[in-house]
């Protein structure tokens, strides 16, 4: 690596990205390409001779950018956004520049130590109990995604219970979530060897805003105990993926503790907001959980990937996941005074994620970060108000954090279709074949294919809803006003099409 050439090319790439951000609003937010578009444009084999950065960047511009869905666009409201930032991006760049592989302390002491420090800082910001921090015999680790965090904790919990009751009883182990728990939970349970028959999805309903009911959980657990099974793991969620519902963590922990279960709190999205004192109560009861995780790559100005996981008992991870081959042996490990993060996770090699988190925390500070999160919640509240003011729409569940779930309402759609049927003499049959869900799906596709904004949907308890998730770093109030106008215009067009 020649440093002058690196400098030259590095400037070019940063310039390229700066231009990208300057022009980001000009691109359709959701990529408009067709499947297989790229294979048609790229050569069949890798180049034999080197190519210049100029040529490569031109192809990035011409071939790659059209196939991007622009997650950093201010008009992006899909899934849960992934809020990038200058500090996050530059921290990522520094980490890639150093390119260390910090699987144990000696392989890069700064990587391990900074991670432990930053995890303690974040724990303090979240007001997590001391028992989750290094000074309280717990500790935190950074992983790629929540899926990894959940798999890691289920695996540790599985071994903890099997050490007690015997390996031969693995088929009796049962895990619990709700019907709103993220799909990664059951996938992780499957990977950890739990029988699919032993996955329980406690039913939620619109009445409880899709949060898990403690009495329903207790009934499910007791039924399994009565059947000779062994409940061992509960995944609660603070901010579910479909509607950002919040499970009552404290009450659910009480139930689980009666049965000696491991409780994990998946706060992938909403955990970010919990650094604001006014949202912290959403994780009340965390002191009785065994593990807690959230994704700073979702809503914390941090580039993908970074899932922060805290556990009260790191030794339960180490007992289950540690490896000690000859080629990794070293004096620091022998002293047992250092953290070897390879023993806290599934993989061996790991990225220097704490560097970008450190840059984000230092560059913006806690106060700014809190206000950043609040501004998104305020914009979502504003959007919710706009929805409520238009009689054709309904908010399906009360807004939670910065997510608004809404749809064209039954009364608006059915009434219009009904009137139209009668006007045109189509009769009842036409009306029966139409469903509200179809109309809303059509509205969403109409909005997204126009490319001005991007939202996604969910289907909960049979109700198809559009999700408007504020969280892109560049979004401002005027973008939200614009987005709502887009939704209204497309709704008018869809309804008019249906009626004619
Ligand atoms: N849990 C919840 C509540 C989520 O909303 C998501 C993703 O949106 C996940 C887990 C999965 O996160 P990851 O992609 O980091 O595995």
Can I get a quick summary?
The chain is α/β, with parallel strands linked by helices. It has 17 helices and 11 strands. A 7-stranded mixed β-sheet has the order 1-7-6-5-4-2-3, with helices on both faces. The protein has a 4-stranded antiparallel β-sheet with strand order 8-9-11-10.
How does this model look, in words?
This is Tyrosine decarboxylase 2. The chain is α/β, with parallel strands linked by helices and 500 residues long. It is 46% helix and 13% strand. It is built from 17 helices and eleven strands. The protein has helices at 3-23, 37-41, 53-64, 86-98, 109-125, 146-165, 183-191, 214-226, 249-258, 296-299, 314-321, 331-335, 354-389, 410-424, 428-433, 436-450, 477-499; strands at residues 139-143, 173-178, 199-202, 230-237, 262-266, 291-295, 307-311, 393-400, 403-408, 456-460, 463-469. The strands form two sheets. Strands 1-7-6-5-4-2-3 form a seven-stranded mixed β-sheet, with helices on both faces. The protein has a four-stranded antiparallel β-sheet with strand order 8-9-11-10. Helix 6 (146-165) packs across helix 11 (314-321) and helix 8 (214-226) runs parallel beside helix 9. The longest helix has 36 residues, at 354-389. The structure holds pyridoxal-5'-phosphate. Pyridoxal-5'-phosphate (PLP) is lined by residues 80, 145-147, 182, 184, 237, 239-241, 266, 268-269, 295, 307.
């Amino acid at each position: 690596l020649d440093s002058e050439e690196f400098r030259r090319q590095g400037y070019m790439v940063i310039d390229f990205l700066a231009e990208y951000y300057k022009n980001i609003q000009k691109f359709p937010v959701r990529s408009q390409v067709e499947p297989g578009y790229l294979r048609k444009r790229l050569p069949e084999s890798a180049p034999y001779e080197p190519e210049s950065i100029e040529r490569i960047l031109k192809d990035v511009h011409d071939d790659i950018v059209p196939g991007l869905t622009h997650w950093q666009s201010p008009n992006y409201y899909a899934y849960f956004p992934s809020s990038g930032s200058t500090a996050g991006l530059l921290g990522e760049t520094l980490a890639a520049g150093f390119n260390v592989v910090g699987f144990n302390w000696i392989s890069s002491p700064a990587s391990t130590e900074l991670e432990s420090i930053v995890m303690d800082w974040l724990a303090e910001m979240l007001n997590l109990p001391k028992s989750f921090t290094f000074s309280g015999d717990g500790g935190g680790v950074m992983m790629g995604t929540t899926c990894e965090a959940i798999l890691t904790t289920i695996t540790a919990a599985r071994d903890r219970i099997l050490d007690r009751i015997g390996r031969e009883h693995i088929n009796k182990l049962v895990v619990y979530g709700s019907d709103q728990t993220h799909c990664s939970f059951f996938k992780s349970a499957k990977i950890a060897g739990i029988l699919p028959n032993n996955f329980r999805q406690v039913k939620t309903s619109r009445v409880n805003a899709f949060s898990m009911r403690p009495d329903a959980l207790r009934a499910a657990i007791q039924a399994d105990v009565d059947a000779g099974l062994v409940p061992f793991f509960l995944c609660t969620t603070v901010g579910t993926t479909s509607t950002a519902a919040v499970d009552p963590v404290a009450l659910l922990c009480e139930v689980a503790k009666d049965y000696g279960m491991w409780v994990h709190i998946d706060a992938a999205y909403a955990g970010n907001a919990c650094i604001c004192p006014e949202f912290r109560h959403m994780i009340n009861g965390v002191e009785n959980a065994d593990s807690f995780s959230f994704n700073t790559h979702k809503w914390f100005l941090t580039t993908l990937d970074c899932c922060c996981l805290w556990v009260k008992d790191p030794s339960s991870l180490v007992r289950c996941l540690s490896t000690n081959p000859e080629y990794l042996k070293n004096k620091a490990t022998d002293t047992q005074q250092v953290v070897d993060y390879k023993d806290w996770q599934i993989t061996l090699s790991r990225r220097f994620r704490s560097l970008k988190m450190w840059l984000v925390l230092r560059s913006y500070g806690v106060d700014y970060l809190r206000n950043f999160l609040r501004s998104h919640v305020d914009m979502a509240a504003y959007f919710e108000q706009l929805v409520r003011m238009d009689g054709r729409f309904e908010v399906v569940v009360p807004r939670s954090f910065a997510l608004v779930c809404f749809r064209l309402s039954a009364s608006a759609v059915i009434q219009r279709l009904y009137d139209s049927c009668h006007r045109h003499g189509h009769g009842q049959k036409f009306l029966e074949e139409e469903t509200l869900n179809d109309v809303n799906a059509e509205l969403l596709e109409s909005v997204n294919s126009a490319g001005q904004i991007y939202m996604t949907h969910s289907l909960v308890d049979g109700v198809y809803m559009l999700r408007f998730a504020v969280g892109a770093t560049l979004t401002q109030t005027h973008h939200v006003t614009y987005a709502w106008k887009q939704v209204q215009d497309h709704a008018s067009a869809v309804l008019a099409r249906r009626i004619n």
